[in-house]
Amino acid sequence: MKNMEKELLCPVCQEMYKQPLVLPCTHNVCQACAREVLGQQGYMGHGGDPSSEPTSPASTPSTRSPRLSRRTLPKPDRLDRLLKSGFGTYPGRKRGALHPQVVMFPCPACQGDVELGERGLAGLFRNLTLERVVERYRQSVSVGGAILCQLCKPPPLEATKGCTECRATFCNECFKLFHPWGTQKAQHEPTLPTLSFRPKGLMCPDHKEEVTHYCKTCQRLVCQLCRVRRTHGGHKITPVLSAYQALKDKLTKSVTYILGNQDTVQTQICELEEAARHTEVSGQQAKEEVSQLVRGLGAVLEEKRVSLLQAIEECQQERLARLSAQIQEHRSLLDGSGLVGYAQEVLKETDQPCFVQAAKQLCNRISRAAEALQTFRPAASSSFRHCQLDVGREMKLLTELNFLQVPEAPVIDTQRTFAYDQIFLCWRLPPHSPPAWHYTVEFRRTDAPAQPGPARWQRREEVRGTSALLENPDTGSVYVLRVRGCNKAGYGEYSEDVHLHTPPAAVLHFFLDGRWGTSRERLAISKDQRAVRSVPGLPLLLAAERLLTGCHLSVDVVLGDVAVTQGRSYWACAVDPASYLVKVGVGLESKLQESFQGAPDVISPRYDPDSGHDSGAEDATVEASPPFAFLTIGMGKILLGSGASSNAGLTGRDGPAASCTVPLPPRLGICLDYERGRVSFLDAVSFRGLLECPLDCSGPVCPAFCFIGGGAVQLQEPVGTKPERKVTIGGFAKLD
């Protein structure tokens, strides 16, 4: 039991527990300390059941705990406020007229306010187990020595008996004195002296009956009366024996585990001690670095101060020199001195030639002096306003000077992040996040075979910019990705995980080939040969007028420039939602050329351009696989016909569902399994199956796109060939 005293100290008085009460937050506090705290908070009449107070002579003020003498009563004005707010009764107020106020107890252990209910401390259980532990600890370490009589006059004698009814310890003489013969107290049975008098069993604070059950919902012991009350209606209530056995098994298992891993505990203690020593060294180093930086700032400021003062001194000396020269010039204009005095003497000259010779130069000087006197202006300004400093911005920077913060968790841009032939991941930092010098991208497969230990992430360090490419992902897999930023302060938090589905097969790269087919003049293929638009033009407008008189409309077809002869292939495209009628699919190259190279016009836009299988065609009656497989799209919808086998949600118990339409996804995916002779149409965003069709794969198969009326198709560009766009922010170049 050594080194256990810390667990047995009350958080209020820092002494060993005496009659501890269990708070709803599971912390303990002495009953006397709890009453003292409630008294300081201004709660009156909520200190518990008055009958729980000692009624023996030992409960007199002179023999109570010295902590009770330190209790500070609330001020009269606060008592008045408490009475007016609903505490107690006062004249004119009926008991129970207002809602009783709930008592809040400030727990000293968890530093939070704990709700005690309406009854206050009277509704709390006494921790008898903790009392027994404290008593055993006192006996093991001989804390306090002998137990003294609580009724003796000083100096008290050693106690020899105790009384559970009186809740006090006595010497022989005091026991006889307070248990006189012939009275009811004489029937009290003496016990061994003790410092803590406990009841024989744990009693319900509400009904004063022994607790027999445990409410799992409220996590509280209850008696038979509590069990049938409405308060615990519908709660999970078990016998105390079941709760006792479950908690004891759980505690025993935890203690056994800890005792069986003492080496691990000691190792972790050594690691913590090493971390503490490293913290001291690192903290001292950080202090020195900050002091050095601040001293550097002070040195720069001092150097700047000296240079600014030197500039002011030079300006001051220059102005003083100019003003001194101007003062001397003006003093020479005084009567009898300087230039004026010399001119006065020259005027006394009577020799005309000599006067003219001397006065010629003097006259110019006197004229300039007279002119300067008329337009007097100091040679230099006495103001130094141009030497004022604006340090508002610098003061703001110094005021906001603080330690560098790690970057916040990045936000992954789900609109630009996708998986195709490679995985393209794009993210951004929150608006007010500290900057990041570089990023770390982590990813892993969620459907990989389970391995012992925590999930292992693959990591890509020091990623510059706000995007990354993950090359060669496994097909038909689900990847989870996350990213975090890093700067001089360290690594920030991870972003939220994003899950991406990779295509079910290897991506097929191809371009559009419009060199053959009907009505090639109405097909506009982009320069990169990855997009095509069908423009009906004036012929279709003129044909609409004669539609009922036998006018025919044509089908515009464009094929891919590659053909598949083996394996599984996948590609994706985006169809313009405003397209009138577009068919996306695959077919035998020979059959496509035979059907569309110079084929006659058809009579209606509803005409199916293939003679094989179509998502809107009628039920097939021939077992042979069709040479074509198309998905019909029009006006932002996909037509799923009854003649094709679709995935769950589109078929019923008795067979395929009737023809229906589904919304057009942003991108469509086509997966061709050449060996099996099957074509699957998918939502390329969620990889949800839309349609699966058979296909005759007796020869080369190539992608095909058919248009009736206006429409547009854009092939998805491979991620690996996507050029990286450079963006310059704050003087640093990064890749977007």
TrEMBL record:
<feature type="domain" description="COS">
    <location>
        <begin position="347"/>
        <end position="404"/>
    </location>
</feature>
<comment type="similarity">
    <text>Belongs to the TRIM/RBCC family.</text>
</comment>
<keyword id="KW-0963">Cytoplasm</keyword>
<feature type="region of interest" description="Disordered">
    <location>
        <begin position="600"/>
        <end position="620"/>
    </location>
</feature>
<dbReference type="InterPro" id="IPR013083">
    <property type="entry name" value="Znf_RING/FYVE/PHD"/>
</dbReference>
<dbReference type="InterPro" id="IPR000315">
    <property type="entry name" value="Znf_B-box"/>
</dbReference>
<dbReference type="GO" id="GO:0001578">
    <property type="term" value="P:microtubule bundle formation"/>
</dbReference>
<dbReference type="InterPro" id="IPR036116">
    <property type="entry name" value="FN3_sf"/>
</dbReference>
<dbReference type="InterPro" id="IPR035731">
    <property type="entry name" value="SPRY/PRY_TRIM46"/>
</dbReference>
<feature type="domain" description="B box-type">
    <location>
        <begin position="199"/>
        <end position="240"/>
    </location>
</feature>
<dbReference type="GO" id="GO:0044304">
    <property type="term" value="C:main axon"/>
</dbReference>
<protein>
    <submittedName>
        <fullName>Tripartite motif-containing protein 46 isoform X3</fullName>
    </submittedName>
</protein>
<feature type="compositionally biased region" description="Basic and acidic residues">
    <location>
        <begin position="607"/>
        <end position="616"/>
    </location>
</feature>
<dbReference type="InterPro" id="IPR043136">
    <property type="entry name" value="B30.2/SPRY_sf"/>
</dbReference>
<dbReference type="InterPro" id="IPR050617">
    <property type="entry name" value="E3_ligase_FN3/SPRY"/>
</dbReference>
<dbReference type="InterPro" id="IPR003961">
    <property type="entry name" value="FN3_dom"/>
</dbReference>
<keyword id="KW-0863">Zinc-finger</keyword>
<dbReference type="InterPro" id="IPR001841">
    <property type="entry name" value="Znf_RING"/>
</dbReference>
<dbReference type="GO" id="GO:1904115">
    <property type="term" value="C:axon cytoplasm"/>
</dbReference>
<dbReference type="GO" id="GO:0007409">
    <property type="term" value="P:axonogenesis"/>
</dbReference>
<feature type="domain" description="Fibronectin type-III">
    <location>
        <begin position="406"/>
        <end position="505"/>
    </location>
</feature>
<dbReference type="InterPro" id="IPR017907">
    <property type="entry name" value="Znf_RING_CS"/>
</dbReference>
<dbReference type="GO" id="GO:0008270">
    <property type="term" value="F:zinc ion binding"/>
</dbReference>
<dbReference type="GO" id="GO:0001764">
    <property type="term" value="P:neuron migration"/>
</dbReference>
<dbReference type="Pfam" id="PF13923">
    <property type="entry name" value="zf-C3HC4_2"/>
</dbReference>
<feature type="domain" description="B30.2/SPRY">
    <location>
        <begin position="490"/>
        <end position="724"/>
    </location>
</feature>
<dbReference type="Pfam" id="PF00643">
    <property type="entry name" value="zf-B_box"/>
</dbReference>
<dbReference type="InterPro" id="IPR017903">
    <property type="entry name" value="COS_domain"/>
</dbReference>
<feature type="region of interest" description="Disordered">
    <location>
        <begin position="44"/>
        <end position="75"/>
    </location>
</feature>
<keyword id="KW-0677">Repeat</keyword>
<keyword id="KW-0175">Coiled coil</keyword>
<dbReference type="InterPro" id="IPR040859">
    <property type="entry name" value="Midline-1_COS"/>
</dbReference>
<keyword id="KW-0206">Cytoskeleton</keyword>
<keyword id="KW-0862">Zinc</keyword>
<dbReference type="GO" id="GO:0005856">
    <property type="term" value="C:cytoskeleton"/>
</dbReference>
<dbReference type="Pfam" id="PF18568">
    <property type="entry name" value="COS"/>
</dbReference>
<feature type="compositionally biased region" description="Low complexity">
    <location>
        <begin position="50"/>
        <end position="66"/>
    </location>
</feature>
<keyword id="KW-0479">Metal-binding</keyword>
<dbReference type="InterPro" id="IPR001870">
    <property type="entry name" value="B30.2/SPRY"/>
</dbReference>
<dbReference type="InterPro" id="IPR013783">
    <property type="entry name" value="Ig-like_fold"/>
</dbReference>
<dbReference type="GO" id="GO:0048490">
    <property type="term" value="P:anterograde synaptic vesicle transport"/>
</dbReference>
<dbReference type="InterPro" id="IPR013320">
    <property type="entry name" value="ConA-like_dom_sf"/>
</dbReference>
